[in-house]
Amino acid sequence: MRVLLVDGDLCSAGGLSKILHKVGAVIDQTDLGEEALEMIRHYDYDIVVSDLMLPDMDGAEMIRRMRSARVDVPVLALSGESASARLRAFAAGADDVLAKPYDEAELVARLQAILRRSKGYASPIVRVGNLQLNLDSRSVKVDEQILHLTGKEYAILELLVLRKGMVLTKDAFLNHLYGGMDEPEIKIIDVFICKLRKKLQGAGAGNLISTVWGRGYMLREEADIRAPMHRAAPSGILPGAIIASLDIMTAA
């Protein structure tokens, strides 16, 4: 999960960062609404968490400008102001508004609920074949047995599951895992994917992750997972003939 945190209060922002890190977030941070709008234009965020009192503009105005620019990234607004200020944030396009001071557990619950809804899931449990992800607890099961993953492995699997059927580039994975900060070489993604595949296959989840050569990786749709890996040759063509034709093409 990549989060843009917008807060003009350094103390408040520091506390928020600690909470977000606990749930595995990669955080970009700014104290200015204008800078936040610029960052949103250039980077792909899962959610924006913003205070409504910013040094350069009203937080509700920042949200309004996001929506006017047709930026549909979900927004959780935080406000220590009156109810009318929170209502302005909703009117501007915030997905949820949390009054300050807030309870840490409630903030995390609201954040996770917004993320689920933005991806089209009403429940925190997402299933693909016999694989089950709990987006709230960040846990994985295969046939009801817990699958132990590292933080990076879980983050990759979560991204693939939430974008099932979409091809994700290695750059997209790096962005999601590191947010442009201290990024390792891009080949590290191949290493993570290899280890993740082995764990999934060892647990009996099959070969869920497909390589799309020259583009990246994708999680196969459930229908594809259930489909047989080998198909019969077309009528009148022997498998040996197919192999021979492939050999000729390769030689050419």
TrEMBL record:
Gene3D superfamilies: 3.40.50.2300, Winged helix-like DNA-binding domain superfamily/Winged helix DNA-binding domain (1.10.10.10)
SMART domains: REC (SM00448), Trans_reg_C (SM00862)
Residue ranges flagged as DNA-binding region: 123-221
Signal peptide: none
Stretches assigned to the OmpR/PhoB-type domain: 123-221
Residue ranges of domain Response regulatory in the record: 2-115
4-aspartylphosphate modified-residue sites: D51
Keywords: DNA-binding, Phosphoprotein, Transcription, Transcription regulation, Two-component regulatory system
PANTHER family xrefs: REGULATOR OF RPOS
Protein name (Swiss-Prot/TrEMBL): Response regulator transcription factor
Species for this entry: Rhizosaccharibacter radicis
